[in-house]
């Protein structure tokens, strides 16, 4: 493993919902989960896994969503371009965008990375373009004129096994995740194939699952990976995110 590989985590907004939206059947007060993006720095280039939301979801703090309202939002300074500049990374230096899928809260910052090519599963790209849906698949987020690299299944981004894109069908028919091989172990960036650690603990899919059979198979693979020592960074897990240090190299030793 090349010692030049680094992973950085950023929160690019908030997702508020009832517990039952994440884990079918759960009840309780509204939860607030992060909308993560991850920078992967490799000696041969920079890649981002997911990019957050578009500008239409920006709010002022004085106009924030009430604590008991379902929705998405981000505030000044939380967009992915600002997050990158805060650690002295020029958004124009990003070579690749790896979108887990093309829902609005995962590709809304794509246009802020003008020189990046987008890597997406062919089946996800086809589904998003064929079935636009407000507040789900919106072309203004993903059809931004950037070069698109369509893949089918697994893809080794740098050809050395350190950054592997893997299919994790279920939440959408073309969902993908990334496994980053850091010096101290593997980290799996889940995206929405698994919203929270609790989903995996109880093996219960979220309500928003396009293919239940594939989603359960994905959960089985995640559970096996976790048992084997892989660290999973879940899609919208507020409890986990409270322990994630943003803007610094991710360290499995912490």
Automatic annotation (TrEMBL):
Signal peptide start-end: none
Swiss-Prot/TrEMBL cofactor(s): Zn(2+)
Lineage: superkingdom: Bacteria
Classification via InterPro entries: MBL_superfamily_lactonases, Metallo-B-lactamas, RibonucZ/Hydroxyglut_hydro
Keywords: Hydrolase, Metal-binding, Zinc
Residue stretches making up the Metallo-beta-lactamase domain: 34-236
Pfam family, one: Lactamase_B
A GO molecular-function descriptor: hydrolase activity
Family statement: Belongs to the metallo-beta-lactamase superfamily.
Protein name per UniProt: MBL fold metallo-hydrolase
Organism, scientific name: Novosphingobium arvoryzae
